[in-house]
Amino acid sequence: MKTYQYMWRMMLYRPLLYLFDVLTWVILTLVELAPGLLAKLFFDTLTGDKPYRFGVTGIVIILLVAEVAHLTLISTGAMLDTHHRFRMSALIRRNMLAHVLQRPGARAIPGSTGEALNTFRDDGQTIEDIMSWFVDQVSIAGFALASLVIMLRINTRIALITILPLLAVIAIARLMGSRVSKFRELSRRATERVTGALGEVLNSVQAIQVANAEKSVMQHLEGLNATRRKLVINDRLLTQILDSIYRNAGALGTGMILVLVAESMKTQQFSMGDFALFVYNLSVLTEFFANFGDFLAYYKQAGVSFMRLTEFIQGKPPEMSQEKAVDLLLQYNTLHLKEPESQGPAHEPLTVAPLQSLGIHGLKYHYPGCDASEKSINGIEDINLKIDRGQFVVITGRIGAGKTTLLRVLLGLLPAESGSITWNGQVVEDPASFFVPPHSAYTAQIPHLFSETLADNIMMGLPHASENLETAIHTAVLESDIQHLPAGLETMVGTRGVKLSGGQRQRVAAARMLVRNPELLVFDDLSSALDVHTERQLWERVFAGHAEGHLPTCLVVSHRHIALQRADQILVLEQGRVTARGDVE
Questions:
Q1: Range with lowest mean pLDDT among 200-209, 280-289, 295-304, 424-433
Q2: CATH no. for residue 262?
Q3: Whole-structure pTM over 0.85, yes or no?
Q4: Residue 577 belongs to what domain range?
Q5: Under 8 Å between Cβ of 355 and 389
């Protein structure tokens, strides 16, 4: 898809706002013709060639009025341009974030977090800039065209010569276009690698310290940054060289034209007023030539950003066509800029009948690069399982057996290669959107907490006055911990819950899923950081603390004896396959 096609789609998002923005700046730049025309009147009046009947005083008054109109239009244009600019980048980022939140959780972003942030920030800003810069180019082009018409009326031959620098700028821009795109792509990729590596380092400080790997990690970062520095310098240097060429082409053209104008004045073909008007318009044309060249270079760079944003939506490897990715990227959604989007009810109603049985039939998934014919399966192979309402089913096995992978494929966090999942005998077509509250809730092996209060981490958007909060805290065996925290439920837990112990983080995550009162509870090694007494309490309360008539159904990954003893059914995995099933006896 061409860059201009992307831009046209974005213009149509708010067409009236874009049109008013363009018209305001076109009128604004046309008003700037007034000083040149008034300069001609002024000098013609002084020299007596074509005196203005209201004299110099009248010219000064007209100039003041023009300046007031100019300032008024600047204020209006700035307001419109700010609204327009922000909406363009906000739409792109809103659609990207919505896409990330709708994708399978294990593959939400195609690269690292640092790379995703770089795409959100830098490429989103480039799109905002090119859409705003296009408005400037339209208005300045209108001004340049009007100036050229005025100059043609004064002297056709000299006015036509002013087009030569523009032709030179266009030729240079076309010649260097592919190199500009290549340099921008390389610099952005290098920046992604640096930000991605920094994110990984900051998330792995303890592991780096334990391995005494600080020196090697710093050397790795220095190498990445040296490559980035070289590529960014190449990108910036090329941009600055082109800018210098464009501006000097305009300046040389201006010098040549002024020489011709001076010759015409000797033959009385130019009045002093004509000369003043010509010089004023030439300065504008020179600026237009330079800006137009810069715009053509930035247009190429914007094409790179549009393509990177499209690839972000497509994923790696691509999971959809470019056309579909573009439609998602440029989807015309409402931006809630003045007030937050209205929230749904605290508890969404069930879209299907309550769980009676959950079936897994021939489920298979292999991680990329895995050969399914190999003896060791990097994934899961032909998994079959039936869970009835109220059962406590435990999946166990050695590290790397495929336990977490099975849960992720079941919940749609990883895409199944084959097989099916049924809810009360009905096939679940889209597990990722189905297995969410109130159908099911999931606590990962390493729960993620946000740098917010304890209550915010549990409720995650639900009203804090929810009647289920106290029950969820009790069921997760958290009440005594909360009593000893300095601010109780309003205690800030720190980044990723750093102020809490491992066991507390796991129980906060458990309370988060319990407060939503789902039909199916999915735990991935929840009790790994719990002592035996706390774990026993938690399982007892999970089954005893629910409302009457609501039997919890649990699918649990665990190797702990307490969980195995309670299990109605145990599934043993080895190398991605079920090797045994039954109960603890």
A1: 280-289
A2: 1.20.1560.10
A3: no
A4: 357-582
A5: yes
